[in-house]
Amino acid sequence: MKKEIFMMVGPSAIPDRVLKAMNKSVISHRSEEYSKIQERVTNYLKIIFGTKNDILPLTSSGTGGMEAALVNCFSLGEKIVVPIIGKFSEQFAYMAERFGLTVKRVYFEHGQTADVKTVMEFVEEDTAGILIVHNESSTGVFNDLQSFGKELKNRETLLITDSVSGLGGLEIKMDEWNIDVVITSSQKCLMSPPGLSFIALSDKAWKKVVSSNIPKYYFDLKRAREFENKSHQTPTTTAIYNMFAVAEALEMIKEEGVENLYNRYKSNSRRIIEEVKNLGLEILAENEQYASPSLTAIKVPGKAKEIVKKLSERGIIINSGLEPLEDDIFRVGTMGYVSENDVIAFLYHLKEIINT
Ligand SMILES: *Cc1c(COP(=O)(O)O)cnc(C)c1O
Question: Under a CB-based contact definition with an 8 Å cutoff, are residues 50 and 175 in contact?
Fold first, then answer.
């Protein structure tokens, strides 16, 4: 029997403890028992988000959280700026257009981080928001949210970030960095099954929610907040089992300690970067300072699919690139339940494959 090592860029490996936490009888999402679990989850997530704002759980994948941010914070025709550093930045821009917003894309090369000055040249008095990916999972590069937050602090423009593959592995300080909306989901750094997303809004963002005229029902965050505040519940039936899972995963994160967790991500990704350089390969991130700690994209022009396949035959599961880089880079996740030993095993097999 082959034991597999999952180093995917989401869904990430799920620890046994988290799987076991779901192996129990159903409870009502209107019970006291459920409320206590949601309360525990949202309280601990506040620490990871770095916020005093409410954390609202939504039954959806990460994209649902992104949609919720758009339909609640904006009104038809409002102007949005989106720095594009890869596929997920582009997805956010496209979604905004689908909801009737006027989108200005600011393009950067694959592997680059968004330059704050360049982006700010396109932000006008009436720009309603900047949509920015925290950690771009298609290129393995993160954006400097803190610098964007500084620029927008005394403006009306909202700073909205998709931290689906960042939060829980990459430091974020929502309040201190003046971020107005943070979105994440359960299946990446939070090492739980896909099915829940989490969103938090600043007071500045909630003010915009009041005047938003985009139709919404399922993702109406005002209702979500009423239920969270009243009873730590959700307006409709939530993904109860996913909530069991996230509660247990957060318990594990608490035991590890958030600082230790961030250091594990950093040292695992560092090891990969150093080792692939020794193999004569390059990473896609142009500036290592902005290389993501939760995944690494490695350049192997024309060979990515073959390498991914050979690694999978050896029980190491990683990802190829996303279009248009599908065969030119592969991506290896250090997100979630990935240990130093997993990284060492991955590097051992990669070396053998590259050298034969
Ligand atoms: C995975 C991911 C998403 C999409 O999340 P889904 O859960 O698949 O909807 C969005 N943004 C980033 C940066 C991601 O890594």
Answer: yes
Compute the distance between CA of residue 113 and CA of residue 289 in angstroms, rounded to an integer. Answer: 10
Q: How far is the CA of 292 from the centre of ligand 1 (A)?
A: 15
Place of tokens 């894309």: 105
Q: Given the CA of residue 10, which atom of ligand 1 is nearest to it?
A: 1
Cα(187) to ligand 1 centroid in Å equals 9
Quick: pLDDT tens for 156-204: 999 999 999 999 999 999 999 999 999 999 999 999 999 999 999 999 9
SS3 6: strand
Gap from CA of 221 to ligand 1 centroid (Å): 20
Q: Which helix (H) or strand (E) holds 316?
A: strand 316-317
Q: In 3-state terms, what secondary structure has residue 166?
A: coil
Assess contact for 163 and 184: CB atoms under 8 A.
yes
Q: Which helix (H) or strand (E) holds 65?
A: helix 62-73
- Given ligand 1 and candidates 66, 89, 164, which is best to mutate, with the most ligand atoms within 8 Å of its CB? 164
Of residues 91, 320, 264, the one with CA closest to residue 183: 91
Whole-number Å distance between alpha carbons of 140 and 349: 21
pTM: 0.97
H/E stretch holding 141: strand 141-142
Give the other-Cβ count within 10 Å of 340's Cβ: 12
